[in-house]
Amino acid sequence: MPSLILCLQECEITLKRSAALTLSYIAQHSETLATPIVEYGLDAIIFYLNYNDTQLRRHISMLLGNIAKHSIEMANKVMEKLTNPEKILANLFDTDVTVKKNAAFCICEIVNKSPENAQYIVDKGGLRILVNFIEKNKGDARLFGIIALGYIAAHQNNEKLAQMIIDENALPFLRDALQNETSLNIKAAACYTLGNIGKHARKHANKVAEYKILSMMLYYYNAPASESSDDLKTKAKKAMKKIIAECDDLQYLEPLIHTAPDNILKHILIKFEKILRDTASREYKRKFVEDGGLKKLQEIKVNCSEEIKKTIESINQGFGNDELIKVSSPSYLNEMLSKIDNYHVVD
């Protein structure tokens, strides 16, 4: 290992590149293999992070990510030697796509390991840089920027970080990634990040839902294999559950009722049950009826699980009008049609 570190410091640029790439290949496998690299050469590695050679910057950014990914201890050592994360953040502005992608990967691994590391990156302006990164870049390079934001938002008991991501106007670019990227992996990453932003409190969930993101997630959850993947479906499902659990603005949940399968629908209806029975205004209840929401619930009730049926019955009670429920049910329309069919004019 010391010999490879010495090769990294040789004058010949091809030797530097080869040494950095070899060290990265070694470090990626385990913490045991990464540890001697940290012990013998982390200072030298970081020295070349912003070096005036594109291939070397690629390899060094990837190498640091491959070290940091193994544990909190490894990530902390990278952070300690960096002294200023602006060095790795600067590589997000590189003209080379691979340098940018590898730098984003490294930042991912650092912010994922602890809330302290995430907060430190944010305090040094990293959040604004990451949002700018996912705005300006498309395709593979964008992936790790999106995941990095997801890791920052994911830390428990720190809703402040999620709010800061919202305040930096990240939501339109995450929505764009979910809607317009061709890579299913990037769509899945967007679901992961949006779910972590929305999970903390109602103000976060309502803001995410405001961008009509839940409908897109539901689309990919229901989509055939040609348009979705198992990973995308899983992440969309988890994200929807997190956001629905906190969202209390029913106008964003109502459109989902019409196409949600039972395992998603039950979470939506539980939210409707709580709000329509306890806090919804008369105006909203009226609008819910006029928009066909109540009618749709009665249609669902005809053929659904016992759990969902009980929840719909509870929602019905919140309207306090048996006649309204009756005229909203499919059976009422059938009864009226039957009366028309059987009506005979008496001469």
Describe this structure in words.
With about 350 residues, the chain is mainly alpha-helical. It has 2 domains: about 1-265, Leucine-rich Repeat Variant (Alpha Horseshoe); about 265-345, no CATH class. Helix content is about 75%, strand content about 0%. α9 (about 125-135) packs antiparallel against α10 (about 140-155), α16 runs parallel beside α18 (about 260-280) and α18 packs parallel to α21 (about 305-315). The longest helix is centred in the first third of the chain and has 17 residues, at about 30-45.
Q: Percent helix among the residues?
A: over 70%
Category by helix and strand content: mainly alpha
The CATH class designation of the largest domain is: Mainly Alpha
Number of domains: 2
CATH topology of the largest domain: Leucine-rich Repeat Variant
Let me know the CATH homologous superfamily of the largest domain. Leucine-rich Repeat Variant
The multimeric state of the shown protein is single chain
Number of helices: 23
Low-confidence stretches: none
State the major sheet.
none
* CATH arch. level architecture of the largest domain: Alpha Horseshoe
Mean pLDDT: 88
Number of E-state strands: 0
Evaluate the radius of gyration.
Answer: 27 Å
* Element-by-element helix/strand order: HHHHHHHHHHHHHHHHHHHHHHH
**Backbone shape:** elongated
Distance N terminus to C terminus? Answer: 107 Å
Topology of helices and strands:
Layout: H1 2-8, H2 13-27, H3 31-47, H4 54-68, H5 72-82, H6 86-90, H7 97-113, H8 115-123, H9 126-136, H10 140-154, H11 159-167, H12 171-180, H13 184-198, H14 202-210, H15 213-222, H16 230-246, H17 250-253, H18 262-278, H19 282-290, H20 293-302, H21 306-317, H22 322-328, H23 330-341
